[in-house]
Amino acid sequence: MGINPPKCNDIDYINFLIAASNVFSCTEAARCYPYIPNAPSHDAFTCCLQRQPSDTEALWEEVKSYVKLKDGCLIVDDSTLDKPYAEEMAFVRRMWSGKHHRTVKGIGLVTLVWTDGTTVIPIDFRIYNIDEDDKTKNDHFRDMLDKAKERGFNPKFVLFDTWYASVKNLKAIRKKEWHFLTRLKSNRLVNPDNKGNVPLETVDIPPKGRVVHLKAYGFVKVFRIVSKDGDTQHWVTDVQEMEQTEREDLAKKSWKIEEYHRGIKQLCGVEKCQARKEESQRAHIMFSLRAFLRLELQRIKNGTSWFESAMKIRRVAVTAYLNNPLYTLN
Fold it and tell me: What is the mean pLDDT of the chain?
């Protein structure tokens, strides 16, 4: 006896994520499915999530045609997917949230994106699950860069935040013969004049930057940026001849991953999966990133923002209701 084919697939679920506005459950996906004989039930969508492989190859297969392996920048950053009401849900733990500026319950998502300064494409991701796989966020950082190298990437720069600026990570990038731009904490030790290591915040750094020796790594160029509100940032690169204008351009590109984080949360339902099992949560996150890819490609092709693309779908539903209101006083 043959095995019945699945009633729904990954594309069905991805399309649901793009069109849905608030509720992103398998039950809701089944309710929204077009009325056809033998339409998929919520169990069918649940099975669709649970049968997905645990690797990220499906994402790579979709995005690889839209990136340039020998051009652009790779950006690594993590984001906390809020799960304030989760009980016994896979991957959920207490962790720091930059959005809330405090510790919250959530899932740690570490993403590697590619950008040319205009397009932003997620190419790999990891879920922070140290109690099960014993991997820190820095381990995931190096694993994803290793995978990128294996896939043929040779980016102009790797961009990342202070959290990932450890000597071990910097050396891993140097071993690949890639360049980096990141930020350092003000207490990192550097040797500016061959007289010994001192905290970075005590070093005189002119507007054009200064080459110093970073403890345990080697010579780097540091820029000190003081914002209007007095906040001080120390940017660092291994490219000792870098000019301030190039640093500004790369810093601007590095913010692309923050835009990506907002997109997957606000428009792709990445935080809204209610399933408790690891397989379902991982697959839902994967599908959310693939949903984002479709919105981003539409933006690049037609100049339509992610929000406007989503609103075009929802306006059709509103128009249909206005033509035939269901809830009236008579």
Answer: 93
